[in-house]
Amino acid sequence: MQKGSDCMVHCRKKGNRWYYRVTWTDEEGTHHAERAGGKTKTECLQAWREAMTEIQRRGELRKTAAMPFGDAVEEWLEKEVAVNRKQATYDSYSSIVRNHLTDTIKAIPLKKITTGLLQDWLNEQRNYYSRSTVHTCYAVLRAACAWLVKNRKYLAENPMADVIMPKIDEIPKPIRVFTADEMARIFTHWPAGHRYHLPIALAYYAGLRIGECLALTWNDVDLTAGTLTVTSTLYDRKGLPTRAKTPKSSHSARTITFGERLKQELIMKRWQQKQTRFQAGPFYKEGPNGGYVCDRGDGGVLTSNDMKWFGMWCKKEFGSGSFHCLRHTHATMLREQGVGLDYIAARLGHSSMYTTAKYYDAITDKREKEVVELIDKVF
């Protein structure tokens, strides 16, 4: 017989096998168990230690069983998502938890959270929200419950393991692409010298995302080689810009070539900034790494909140449109000219060519007209 820290273990040999007996006490009373431990005493003691680890783990599960589901998910947000994910991901996930999970769901104890309960809740969400929102809810719950099982040991099994993403039939929204006439009107409304002009030009001529445009510094620009190097992205959180160390993904860090039109835009902007710096003197807000390419006119960093008027103007003038549509326009124009999807994917910083094909290998008016002309020739 050997003594453990808070239990007793009895080892005995019966026939050719060793058996161990454990006695432990918890809030539910005293318990006894005898199990086969192996062919040797050493194996028997090891089996006993593993059994005690399981007993202690289940003891912890009992202690956390009454914890409200909402508190457990909030702990996941702060100790996992806030630490290991980008700020944008944290804000998106916390919005789901705090705005979509109802107080009724949050108040349910962990021990009563079941697969059926979560499946029914998720199914109900499709009556109120889009497929993308419901899918985010699904992803958040899966990740949170997996962490509660594997990292915290609050749950013995993952209740989301067998939950199925409900089917939601939606007509996909067409990609909004600006026409040549619309782009002319955009550049007329925000001409060279306006603080919106260069971000618009970068998105249109180089396919940059808005955060990539605003984070771009002059150290990232090589006017001689005609290249832009995307090394970071700017994200707005509660009105405060954050210059992240990395872009959206590892594939988003890339070098992009540009043509003469964008080169002249950049040269002009560089000259304007030098003039402003000279006139403002010590009041000029010098940015990092040679200064921001896109600034507020005084060297200060632009934010996506500053750019919100672009989308509002587009909706008023064209009925729809946003800054991201400039990136769509850039990619679509390349595709119409026969540029390969692999090149477009690398240029846009997509992690998979499937993403590029999904959005940009569609039938455009120009391609439709070319096919009709070809049909007329063939038939």
Explain what the structure shows.
The chain has helices spanning 41-64, 69-84, 87-99, 103-107, 115-125, 131-150, 180-189, 197-206, 210-215, 260-280, 308-318, 324-336, 341-348, 353-360, 365-378; strands at 2-3, 7-14, 17-26, 29-38, 221-222, 227-230, 234-237, 240-243, 254-257. The chain has 379 residues and is an alpha+beta fold. It has three domains: 2-64; 69-150, DNA polymerase, domain 1 (Orthogonal Bundle); 180-367, hpI Integrase, Chain A. A four-stranded antiparallel sheet has the order 1-2-3-4. It has a three-stranded antiparallel sheet with strand order 5-6-9, with no helix packed on it. The protein has a two-stranded antiparallel ribbon with strand order 7-8. Strand 7 (234-237) and strand 8 form a beta hairpin.
